[in-house]
Structure formats: structure tokens, C-alpha cells
Amino acid sequence: MGVFNWGWATLFANVLIPVGILIFSSGFFPYKPLLPGLATFDQADQDATLPVFDKVVFMVVDALRSDFVYSNESGFLFTQSLIRSGVALPFTAHASSPTVTMPRLKAMTTGSVPSFLDVILNIAESDTSSTLAFQDTWLAQIKARGDQLVMYGDDTWLKLFPGMFGRSDGTTSFFVSDFVEVDNNVTRHIPDELAQSDWSAMIMHYLGLDHIGHKAGPKSSHMLPKQQEMDAIVNQVYTQIEQQSHLQSTLFVLCGDHGMNDAGNHGGASAGETSPALLFISPKLASLDLRQSSPIEPFDDLQYYRTVEQADITPTLAGLLGLPVPLNSLGVFIPEFLDLWDDQSTRLHVLYRNARQLLNTVQATFPSFTFDAASLADSCMMEPDSGIEGARCAWSRVLRETSSGNVIERDFEALESSLLQFSRIAQNLMSSTASNYDVSRLSLGLLITAVAAVVVFPITYQECKRSTYTGIFLLFLIIGYGSMMFASSYVEEEQQFWYWICSGWMVYLHIRSASSSTTASSSRAGVFSANAGKFAILGFAIALRLVRRWNQTGQKFAAEPDIARAFFPSHRPIFWALFMLTYADAGLRLWRSLPSTILKMGGVTLATLACVFKLNFVANDSPELIVDTILSRIAEGWPSSASLVLQARLIFGGLGGCVLIALALRSRSDENEGPSKLLHEALHLFLMTQSRATNIPLFLVFRIAAWSLSSMELSDMEVTITTMILQYTSFFAFGGSNAISSVDLSSAYNGVGSYSVAMVGILTFVSNWAGPIWWVSAGHLLRGHQEHGGESHNAAALLTFHVAASALSVMAACTALRTHLFIWTVFSPKYLYTIAWATGNHVAVNLFGVAGLSLLERRR
Amino acid sequence: MTSSNTSSAAPTPGSLSQAPAEKPSAPPINVLPSQLAQSYSLAHPVVLLGLCAWRFEAVVESTTRELLRDLPWLAALQFVYVITCLPPAGSSFGEVTPGPEDKKRASRSSTGSSAPVRPGKSSHRRKTSAKISWASVWARLMPASLAFGLTTLLATPAIAILLVLFGAPLTTHNVETFLCAAHMALLSSTPLIYVHGVDATVWKEVWGISRPADIVWGSALGTGLGAWFGAIPIPLDWDRTWQAFPITILTGAYIGYAMGGLLSRTPFVYGKRIQFAPGPADEDEKKTN
To answer: How far off is chain A from B126, nearest CA to CA, in Å?
Structure first.
């Protein structure tokens, strides 16, 4: 089954699939043209600009959902007293999906709506194309003015703004279990910085609250103390602003970059995730006389006070600090602050500059529409209030009102409201066109993928014809899966499909083994083996049932108790017994598959080392699993000298050694299945290292399932379909889903000292696709050793057809539903996952991985 | 979901002892030829579906109470159905204790029972021609009570276990699962037991899902398949109360029961078996239903 007997058609199709995906992506995630350079004032602007504040303290509390500050269950008591006294102006800032930190920071600093691609770049954090070094932001504007910026907290800022900050101390969020250190690292700098007067902007980004959310959810007992801690910092900063003379015109902004859902995760578009709090705090705001009641009874949609867009922060800060509005901003100045200027014309000028900047972005996007007075004269017949015509109409009203009469007679109120109206229409227009699809590329991508499917179809058809019912089932699976991709809830609950298909396939396997055991029982083996088959299917069924419940995933039932997150934390001894059993099993099998005693000892040492590493990792990453067990006392006694990075490198080195031994083994003719067994065991240990601790016993369950399958005497095609179904099933059983928030990054940095995109990318893929990779290898073992005469089974073609068909249906769904409400929350993430399935799991693992294994054996 | 697997508990001992001496499996069975039997066998699924549709609202309203309340009615209907329409298992009642000799005879008589004439009756007629009506009633009542007894004691727990293995919740909803299993057992297993008794060969075939298609096996298989397809609407985000477990499963089971029974009576499907080729070499394939 090496590369050579795939056939040219399969090879060709597998070239076409990535090409189709690439072209489709370029049309689906278009590169958004950005206006280059920095915005500048002309002389008239310079004269009319009157800054209200000269300094800003920008405090981001990661995942600060609106109710964490505003509701009466909040710990922000001091902040609430500021709201009551009118020196703090509260808002709910709508954060558009994807609600992950980096795109949100981009939105808050550039005022634009980041494209969906930023999600991927958020994961590949160091990607230089994602930096804002060359984009217009309010930070760049401050810097351009010659002022200094300082930054403490999440190092995403340092990556986004290289060289921007005069002083900084970045914090990485490596262990989500760290609630304390990440925040103390920021707080300790506050007194010094507030005493200095050489900066104009101080940015603080606190991660602890987000970590609590990820770890224990918004209802965690850690949440209230953390809120109180953050409130104390607000108190500290505000007191200094009141007392220190050099801070007297400092604007203090407190905001969240995104919220969190009830499980404490974010990334999607639920009300919880998109509703962070936003407060502007300064003693000067008392003059606005906007006292609001606080706290408020909590309510479900979380829209406390007035809701503004997160992008509005940028023009508001620009207006208040007297800066030009950054070029690509889509924000609208928050009108509550207009009363800070007594002079009507200054107020108008702030709005006018904002509107003119928006007009520029609109004109850059719609060059075919003109906005000059002459052509606009007759464009307002229909009074449209949205879209490009709405923008033109609103702009013509602005022009009409500015040109009518002299300065004194102008109706300031009316002009203000028409400027704001234009700005809002332009904002809506530009936010919705932020995703302009290139339909011709979408179609081309679809076409190429369709050709890939058509090219492998004849081979697939031949395969299916040879065993009719298996073929019918496969076709049923592919058609069912394809049509499912058009329904958002089935995309969200994809695991249900695979669990369901898996149970159906189980019945197939049962009928298969039952019928073969009755026909065979007379000739050989007899009663016992016939019954072994029955027990095998029972074992398989029980294993699958356990696997289904291991991690609840998806959307609808995600919060229901499961084994990994509900059962194990409350039954820790059972968990640790299974954990140890899994490692013992791994060690034993390494022992068996290694040739000589010394190497066997080495294998066992390696398994022990892997186990110790995992224990150390658990002690850091999820200490709640380890407290009150015997292990916690053992863990205390461990030498902490060897860092986790070093331990992981030792393990990876040892596993590399196993691979070398396997390569050496193949020159010995007496070892029949030695190399692939050994490789499977090494892979087994590697995948365990890359998995969350609570998922490790799953590998034991997989062993049982694989053992059941091996006693069923399946044909090659059945093995292919079984392992394909199990690949998908296990992906979801490990906690995967089609939501961006479920990407597991906890093991992405194992053994990686300094950031490297390739290493972290591969480790991330492996730790999220651990189950599928395991089943690919297990499938190879199940299939490998039957000597079959005649035409051999072409697994690659079958898998390619499935992948091409599923990619095709996902692309078709994304094209057909591109105006659907859920396109960015459900279908686009699914498309990203499809890319990973098709390129990573299919091409790299299923084809090249298995081809490599086959080559290894072929030599004999 | 394969209701056929109800037998998992019942036939295993039998199949063990039976293994050396393979006997021919019972042929597909027919509905009794009388006018009443023929017409009621067609009406019965319709009646059940009607009952299902009529009580659907109530089931959605309070699932457990309504399912429990419907159980005796379903049992009564199935009782009437098997008594009226199906040939009872020959002397299967006595089959629990006797030795292999008797068993063979019993099986032969039950094999004969597939003839269009009322078979159970005929075997008794030979013994006591004087008490025809009594024997007839007896011959039907005994298999019927056996069927209901075994349905309650074995089939329902077995189906409940299968439901859990196929994904029904284990830690919650146990009452619902059990009631669902009881309904499915009454639909699928009662007629099977009534017709075949505890004939080990038949149950082995049932376990292997390789019975020839007939009304009883068809509706049993349909029940399981329908329940499997009934799971489809559950993940949809429509937020309807009827999406709760086990309403859709059971509805699917009822529909599958009706369709499976009717389909497998058509000449196109009747008598065919599901048999998957063990490998590409196997050419002895038969048509699925």
C-alpha cells in the first residue's frame, strides 16, 4: 500500500484537493485592502482640535464580561460607586466574533473589524503579518506625536506592537491554572509608573480572570476575589489620578477584550462572549452629570447601560486625546462625551473629522460611487437608511446643512445628529462589507475539489462494487455527512453524527462477524471462537459507549456532566488508577516490542519518564486533579530541577530513538511485525504525551476497541471504513468540536523553549488530532498482515473520495450560506477544521504516514 | 438499534448446547389465512400509528406518565394481534425442559407450522380431536403468555441495555429508557416469541440479524432501525420539547415497526435475508430488505 499502488488518479486527486482548498480560501477569506500610513491633521484640524485629556491609562481585563462589573453579584464595588457618582461612564462594548484576544485588541486599537483569518494568526501568534506595526492605531498616533507608551501584561501587545513601548513587561499565559502570578506581574509595576510623568499611554492587560474562566467557569469561587482584586487596582489608579497633579487630565479606560460563555470559554458569538464591559473613568467626567444607577439586577442578554461597538473606542480616544482618527477605523465617536467641550464648533469638528475619516474608508471601498454635492443632490428621493445609498443620502444631508446659512444660524443640533447618522450608516456598511467574497474564486475552488472527487470516483466505485453492502454503507455515510454540513446545528453537533454512524457500523460489524462465525464454525475453531466474536462486539460496544461520554462537546449538550470533566475530578483515585494503568500498559508493550533486554529497559524508562512528565504537567496545569491524592505528596518530593521543557525533550528524544531502532529492525528478517508494532507503541506514547491528562485513559479504551476489531477478521475495506469512522469519533471524544474555542493549546509547547511556528503548529495538530492519528496507525496494524492475493485494496482512494466529498460539501455550504447569520460563527470555523482534516489528517497522516509505514515493511 | 438482539440473554445457553447439531432454520412465517387475520394484520400497524399520533401530545407533555399509561393498551393490542393473526409456536411451551430428542421433534412441528394451515392447532388436533376449541385456545394462550412473560423479564432489560449501548443516557433518564425499551420490546419481541417460542436456531438467527424477512422479523427489525433513525432530530437547535429523549426514538420505532412489517410482506422482500459477504471472495450474497 505504498505510494506506488495508489494509482495516478488518487495521486492527482490529492494534489487537487489542497489546490482547491487554497483557491477557495483566497476567495472566502479575502485580503482586506488597508489604507497605508498614518492619519494626519491639516492646519485647520490642528487649530480646531482641543484635547480634553493628555494621558490615558488603558486597563484591559481579559474576558471581563459586562455583568462582572455591573451586576449586583459583582466584586467591583468601588467601580460601581464611581458609576453612581458620575465619574465613570459605563457601556457594554459589542465585540464581534471571533471573540479571541488578538482580533479584539486589533479592533480596539485600529477601530477596524478584523478579518476571520486573524483567528488562525491568533493561534500562530508570532506571525509577523499580523502585527500592527505598520497600521494606523491610536497607539501609533500617540507615538507619532513623540510621546512615550508603556505596557504591562499579556505579551500579545508586544507581538502586535513591536518597538512601540518605551517600557514593558510581557506575561505569557502558559499555564491556564495560574490565576495569581500573571496578574501580580502587572500590578507590581503600577506604583512606579503612576509616579512617573514621562508617558502618555499606559496599557495594562490582566489575564487572571480569563484563566479562571477557562479553568472553572464564570461561577467559580475564584471569580469574586479576582473581581475584588481588579476593583482594588481601579481604586489605586483612580486615587492617584485624583491626587497626583501630573495625572490630573488622565483618562482611565477599563474594558474587557471579550466576554465568556457559561462554560468560561470564548471565541464564538453568544451574548456572553460578545458583551465585555467598557468604562471611561475620570474626575472630569463628573461635569457631564451622567450619574447612573449601579449595581443592576443581572439579566440574560448582558446588555447593561448603552451598547456601543468595540471599534468606537478608537475614534473616542482619538477625539478625547486630540489625535487624528486612525485611517482604517470604522468606529463612531461616543456622543456622550461631546458635552466635555463647551464650544459647539469644537464638538461639531470632532464629529466632522470622524465622519470625514469614515467617508474616506467608504470611498476607498466603493470607488464607483461619488460623494460630491452635485451628484448627491438627487440621490435622496427614496430616503434609504442603510447601504451605500443610505450613506450617500446621509452625507448629502450633512452637506446641505453645512452649506446652509452662516455659522451663527446653523442648527447645531441637527448637524450633530446628521453627522452621527452618517457615521453609523457608514459603520454598518463597512462592517458588513468587511467580508467581500470573491465568488469566482469560490466557484473555482469548488470546481477543482469536485474534479478531485470525480477523479477518484471510478476507483471508489470499483472498491464498493466488490463488497456491495460495505459500499452502500460508505455511500450512505458520505451523503449523510455531506448534507449535514448545510445545517448549522448538525455542524455544531457533528459528534452526534459520528457516534450515530459508529453505532450503525457496529451493527454491521456484528452481522458480519455473526454470519462469518456461523459459516466458519463447522469447519474450524468451533464454539469458543464463535463466542469470542460475540464478546468482541460487546467489548467494542461498551468501549464506544464510554468513548462517547468521555468529553461532552458541541453546543447543545456541552455543559452536561461527562467523564473527563465531571466524573474524574470527583473520583480522583479512579482517574489516577486508570492513568497509571494506561502508562503501565504502554510501558509493557514497549518492553515487548523492543528487541534486546537493554533496549527493553530503556523502553520502560521512557514510559516512566513520560508518566512523570505528565504528572508534573498536571501539577502545574490542572492541580485540582492532584490535590488530596497520594500523588500530591509524592509530587512535592520530586526534584523540580528538570524543567518541563527538558523532560519533554528527553521523551521526544527517546521516542526518536525508538523510531531509529524500528528502522534498524527492518533489516532483520526474523522480525515479522516488529518495526510497525514498535512504531505504533512509540506513537502511542507520543500521543499520550500530547493529550490532556484526563484523556489519557481513553487510549486504554482504544486498545480494547482495537483488540475487539482484530478478533473480527475484517476485510481490508472494512478496516478502512472502521478506522475512518473511528478517526472522526475519537476526534470528538477527545473534546474536539467545530468551534474555534475547543482548540486545545495546552500541550502545544511541550519541549519547545522558544516560539517556533512550525513546532508549535505540529504539536498543536498532534494534540488535537491525537485520536485520529492513533486510529490511522492502529488501522495499519489491523490491515497490514493479511497476505491477500489478486488486486489489493486501495484504501487511499476510498479515503480521498470521502475527504474530497466532505470538503466539497463544506465549501458548497459556505458558498450557499455566505449571507447566513451563522457564517462566521459556525460555517467558517467548520471550514477551517475541514482544511485541517483534509491537509493535516488526510494527506499528511493517512496518506504519507501510512505510505511511510508500508515502505518500512515492504523492504523485507 | 436491533431489537433482534433482545435474544442476547435468551438463546445463549441454547446456542451453546445446540452448536454441534445444526438444524435447518425455521422458514419465514405467514399471517394466518383467515379473512379476519389477513385484514387485521394490515389494520394493526395503522391502529398503532394512530395511537402513537393521538397520544403524541400527551407523551411530550409528561413522558414517563403517559408511556407507562400506554403500556397496558399496547400490550392488549399486541395480544389481540398475535392471537388473531400469527401462528403460535408449536409446542414451544414444553421446550424449556426436554432433551434434544424432544426439541428436534418440537422444531419439526414448528417448522410445519409455517404451512398455510393453522399449524399449532393441527399438531394438537392429532392428540385430542374432542377438545378442538379448548386446544386451540390453549395453543394460543400458552405461547402468548410465554411471549408476554419473556418480553417483560428478558426482552425489556435487554433492549434497555442495548439502548444505553447505542447512546441512551445511563446516569439520568433511566425510567424513560426502561419505558422506551418496554414499548420496543412489546412491538418487536412479543410477536417473535409468540411465533418462535424459544427455538434456539431462530434466536441465533435473530442474534445474527439473519432471519428471512417475514412480517414478524420485518417489524422487529423495523422497530430497531426506526429507533436508530429516530435519533436524528435530537441535536437540532429547534428547542422543541419533543426533541427530548426518548420521544423521537420511540416514534421512530413505531413508524419502523409499521413499515418493516408491511414491507417485508411484499413478495419483493419476503423471505430474503440480510447477509453481508464476509469477504470479496464470497459470492453467495442475498438481498437485504
So the answer is: 36
Taking contacts as CB-CB distances below 8 angstroms, the residues of chain A near B229 are none
Counting other chains too, the contacts that A33-38 makes at CB distance below 8 Å and 24 or more residues apart are: A33/A364, A34/A112, A34/A135, A34/A327, A34/A328, A35/A136, A35/A327, A35/A328, A35/A360, A35/A361, A35/A364, A36/A134, A36/A327, A37/A136, A37/A327, A38/A136, A38/A140, A38/A141, A38/A144, A38/A324, A38/A326, A38/A327
User: Which CATH number belongs to the domain containing residue A292 in this structure?
Assistant: 3.40.720.10
> Are residues A537 and A576 both part of a single domain?
yes
Please, what is the Cα angle at A743 between A738 and A744, to 5 degrees?
145
Which of B165, B228, B278 faces A545 most closely, judged by CB atoms?
Answer: B165
CA distance A499 to B163: 13
Tally of structural domains, chain A: 4
Q: Are residues A649 and A661 in the same domain?
A: yes
Residues 513-552 (A) with a CB less than 8 A from some CB of B: 514-516, 518-519, 521-522, 526-527, 530-531, 534, 541-542, 544-545, 548-549
Q: Check whether residue A807 and residue A849 sit in a common domain.
A: yes
Verify that A9 and A75 share a domain, yes or no: no
φ, ψ of residue A190 to 5 degrees: the values are -60, -50
What pLDDT does residue A668 have? 64
B275 touches chain A (CB under 8 A): yes
Name the residue of chain A whose CA is nearest to B169's CA: A549
Which residues of B are less than 8 Å from A467 in CB distance?
A: 276-277, 279-280
A554 touches chain B (CB under 8 A): yes
Is A526 within 8 Å of B207 when comparing Cβ atoms? no
SS3 content of chain A, % helix, strand, coil (to 5): 65, 5, 30
Q: Which domain holds residue A22?
A: 1-30+437-466+794-860
A 623-662 residues with CB < 8 A to B: none
CA-nearest residue to A557 within chain B is B235
Is A473 a domain residue? no
**Other CB atoms within 10 A of residue B136 CB:** 16
Q: How confident is the model at residue A155 (pLDDT cuts 50, 70, 90)?
A: confident
Residue A407 has pLDDT above 70, yes or no: no
Chain B interface, best mutation among A479, A494, A513, A518, by max B CB count within 10 A: A518
Q: In this complex, is the C-beta atom of A467 within 8 Å of any C-beta atom belonging to chain B?
A: yes
Q: A812 and A784 in one domain?
A: no
Q: Cα dist. A813→A235, A257, A452, A808, B242 in Å?
A: 51, 31, 18, 8, 28
Q: For A274-295, how does the pLDDT look when each residue is reduced to its tens digit (9 = 90+)?
A: 999 999 999 999 988 888 888 8
Distance from CA of A299 to the nearest CA of B (A): 21
A295 and A186, same domain (yes or no): yes
Least confident of A185-194, A532-541, A630-639: A630-639
Whether B235 has its CB under 8 Å from any CB of chain A: the answer is yes
Asked if residue A537 and residue A399 are part of one domain, the reply reads no
**Residues A678 and A668 placed together within one structural domain of the fold:** yes
Task: Tell me the count of A-B CB pairs closer than 8 A.
Answer: 91
Q: Inspect the interface and report whether the beta carbons of B234 and A492 lie closer than 8 Å.
A: no
Give per-residue pLDDT as tens, A320-338: 999 999 988 889 999 999 8
- What is the per-residue pLDDT across A732-741, written as a single tens digit (0 to 9) for each? 999 999 987 7
Percentage of chain A lying above the pLDDT 90 cut:
41
ipTM for this prediction: 0.79
Give residues 215 to 234 of B whose Cβ lies within 8 Å of A: 228, 231-232, 234
SS3 state of residue B231: coil
Summarised one tens digit per residue, pLDDT across range A675-713 is: 788 889 999 999 999 999 999 999 999 999 998 888 887
| pLDDT at A31 (0 to 100) | 61
For the segment A233-263, what is each residue's pLDDT rounded down to a tens digit? 999 999 999 999 999 899 999 999 999 988 7
